[in-house]
Amino acid sequence: MNGPANITLEVTNQCHLDCDHCYLETNRNLDELSVDEIEACLLAHLETHDVESFVITGGEPLLRPDIDEICEMIAPRVEELRLLTSLSTRDAGSLVAELPIDALNVSVDGPRARHDAIRGEGTFDRVLENLRRIDRSRLNEVYLNCVVSSYNEEAFPDVLEAVDPLADTVGFQLQTWARPDDVARSAERLDCDEGTFMLPAVPDHPATPSTVTENVQEVRERGERSSTTVRVFPPGISDAVIHEWFGSGEREQMRGCQTIYRRPLVGPEGDVYPCPFVRQSMGNVRDEPLSEIWTGRSIEQFRQRLSETGLLPICSRCACSA
Predict the structure, then answer these.
(1) SUPFAM superfamilies annotated for this entry (predicted)?
(2) Cis peptide before 200 (omega within 30 of 0)
(3) Angstrom distance (rounded) from CA 91 to CA 71
(4) What is d(CA 142, CA 147) in angstroms, rounded to the nearest whole number?
(5) Higher pLDDT, 150 or 20
(6) pTM of the model
(7) What is the pLDDT at residue 202?
(8) From CA 189, how far away is CA 191, in angstroms rounded?
């Protein structure tokens, strides 16, 4: 296996929001990679490998005061530089307009009332205001992502009308979560601490399968009439899987996971993880090159274990395995 052609970099753990469905433990005091360290640790890989997609995320990446320097350093060396953001800081639109990015992913869980209930009062209008400041003609895609959960199960189809015509694509993604038993059994399988798995536990009130099923069908129908591309994740999800997804048991039918082969996640402190939800470090870019970590003994043993015993119980409700 060659070095990865798709890379995700969390540039910060800081975030000004506190969303109920978020899997990250934000605002911890971390020793984040500096611009000089990102250059020293990652540029050699970017200059010697064809990187198709490089994603910058956080936390909220726009809270990094040097986000412009990071983007300017990476952009010329990758085919596509994509920024993931809530776009809800007051100056986000003006800041993004100056960044040399190719694509933009923005979190929208509304319409307004539902979005603000999840992310904070006034954030929905701020997102739309910031979207209007961005010149879409210079971007390959403006992608709005809506997490489908119990918080918005009855209202998420209305996102399409609320954001039209400010996006090229709107994606609806079923909330990723796990039962405590899933976490415990996954930790036993990997012989690690349960804190290794960074994802929300079972919601107090999981979404109602019949409501989600009805509204997924509605967004698909609205998408056929809209100039905005509509996607639902997991792709091609059936009514039966929706019922399993928000039910109390473990889903039995899972495909293999491509993320652990195709897209390393580099955390704010330089640790390399096989998956956003499995925070078991395979190495640190401060100590060794990314390509060596991604083809090294630790990650190969991890992949082999999953190949022999199947995906982890926590993979049951992840779009990558559905």
Answers:
(1) Radical SAM enzymes (SSF102114)
(2) no
(3) 17
(4) 16
(5) 150
(6) 0.94
(7) 65
(8) 6
Assess contact for 93 and 132: CB atoms under 8 A: yes
Domain ranges for the chain: 6-315
With vertex at residue 266, the alpha carbon angle to CA 56 and CA 286, rounded to the nearest 5 degrees, is 120
Cα-based distances in Å from 167 to 161, 171, 320:
11, 10, 24
Task: Please spell the DSSP secondary structure of 21-90, one letter per residue.
Answer: T-----S----PPPHHHHHHHHHHHHHHS--SEEEEESS-GGGSTTHHHHHHHHGGGSS-EEEEE---ST
The CA–CA distances, whole Å, from 251 to 210, 240, 313 equal 17, 11, 8
Q: What residues form DSSP beta bridges with 103?
A: 82, 141
Q: Which two tokens stand for residue 314?
A: 């926590």
- 191: phi > 0 → left, psi -120 to 50 → alpha, else beta; which? left
- Interatomic CA distance for residues 162 and 128, integer angstroms: 9
Distance CA 177, CA 164 (A): 29
Query: Tens digits of per-residue pLDDT, 196-207?
Result: 998 876 666 789
Tokens linked to 200 = 């929300």
**Beta-carbon neighbour count of residue 173 at 10 Å?**
15
Q: Which pLDDT belongs to residue 189?
A: 93
- Tell the CATH topology of 6-315: TIM Barrel (3.20.20)
pLDDT digits 0-9 by tens, 88-113: 999 999 999 999 999 999 999 989 99
Give me the residues paired with residue 170 across strands: 144, 230
Who's near 291: CB < 8 A, 6+ residues apart? 2, 3, 4, 45, 48, 49
